[in-house]
Amino acid sequence: MAPKATVFKVQVQISDLHHHNDESCRLTLARHLAETDARIARCR
Predict the structure, then answer these.
(1) For residue range 10-33, what is the model confidence (pLDDT) as tens digits?
(2) How far apart, in whole angstroms, are the C-alpha atoms of residue 40 and residue 38?
(3) Would the CA dihedral through 20, 42, 40, 37 be positive or negative?
């Protein structure tokens, strides 16, 4: 049996105090076996 991808469930909260706006969203990310944790954490 082949190993499976690693699944990460995260919640992101963003606040804009200048405009009095708050947002929260939940994300599900899957890391392929060939990817590193550093690549998942990198922002583009």
Answers:
(1) 999 999 999 999 999 999 988 888
(2) 5
(3) negative
Average pLDDT over residues 36-43: 74
Extents of the domains making up the chain: 6-41
**SS3 call for 37:** helix
Q: What number of other Cβ atoms are within 10 A of residue 3's Cβ? A: 6
Dihedral (CA of 20, 25, 36, 34) sign: negative
**What is the Cα 11 distance to its own chain's centre?**
8
Total residues found in the chain within this entry: 44
Which residue is listed with tokens 């060939």? Answer: 34
Where do the DSSP E strands lie in the chain?
6-16, 21-31
